[in-house]
Amino acid sequence: MTKRLIFLLTLISLFYSSCFKKEDPIELPDGNTTITTLSLGNEYQNEVYFDLSTNSFMVKQRRSWDIRFEADENGWGVFINTGKGLRLKKLNIHDLLEPQSYDTMNIRMKDTLLDAPDGKPENSAFKDWRQYKITKNNKIYSGIYVLELNYLSGPARYKRVQIDSVTADEYICVFTDLYDGAGKPIVENKNKTIIKKSKTQNYTYYSFEGTPHIVADQEPDRNTWDFVFTRYNHFFYNILPNNQPFPYILNGVLSSKNNVEVAKDSSTKFQDINSTHIPIYTFSKDANAIGYDWKNHAFGAAGTYTVNSKVTYIIKDTDGYYYKMRFLDFYNALGDKGYPKFEFIQIK
């Protein structure tokens, strides 16, 4: 472990520790509420999708996909699986003939781009790729990104990505390796990859591993889930010099983009919150409106997670109903971590 990494982890520890305080006793759950415990897996390998109205969930493998594409008719956003540790580079090159497009040294020197956790396409690693184009000799060239696949090694670790267009039904992309089987640079690729937009999901999921590359049913029907427990990238500030963002992969909750909105109340008792409070709340459509900080971690050899049950999340679900929810624990009866326990009830 490098000195720089040790220094950064120490800073994070201090950042978290400054937020800790002695826990107050948890008031017993309301007898009319539903209490649910989910399993994220011993290595946090699961993505667990949850639906409030039916108290049901679906478990998927987090590492099953690399890129996902917004699937609604007007959607154009493209996102990478930051929870898998993937990273994106923007080369500012538009032609595969350019030697720098297959020069691994040049690629490694480029800034790393990551998705912001709010789920907004303009804040993704790809940002608005539709503006990353040039016109030359009456021909439009799409800009080249490089996706670093950390589960591979050597030149195969890098995949050049060009997104040509998007319609109401599909995306057209070009995915190019750096070199062919004989070790020669690939400087031309006329093979277009068509990514059909899912008719039932928020996103279409794509993986460079195995076949088929389209990962079917990676998430439930968009109308049957409200949020997902998963790993994702978060940016911490006030850690690095000049307030530079420090990216960190963590476990948390991301809301569905299908009409889900979330408000947060840390001053009213969970038992006292009802439908009359709804008009006074400010609701957010950001994917990370629930996020990760309903739990805290005490860094160190004996570090454990503590849950802040005094924070209540008011959630408008995909059906337009309102629920209040709070977290109770992050451990099962055996003391194993990765078992979020939460309490909820419909209030409107």
Extended strand count: 22
Q: What's the number of helices?
A: 2
Name the shape in a single word: elongated
Helix content: under 10%
How much of the sequence lies in strands comes to 35-45%
How are the strands of the largest sheet arranged? 1-22-21-20-17
**Stretches where pLDDT falls below 50 for ≥5 residues?**
9-25
Largest β-sheet summary: 5 strands, antiparallel
Rg, Cα atoms, Å: 22 Å
Classify the secondary structure makeup into a structural class.
mainly beta
Order of helices and strands: HEEEEEEHEEEEEEEEEEEEEEEE
What does this structure look like?
There is one protein chain. A hairpin with a 7-residue loop joins strand 18 (295-297) and strand 19 (305-307). The strands form six sheets. Strands 1-22-21-20-17 form a five-stranded antiparallel beta sheet, with no helix packed on it. A five-stranded antiparallel beta sheet has the order 6-9-10-11-12. Strands 3-2-15-16 form a four-stranded antiparallel beta sheet, with no helix packed on it. The chain is mainly beta. It contains two helices and 22 strands.
Index terms:
elongated, mainly beta, 348 residues, single chain, five-stranded antiparallel β-sheet
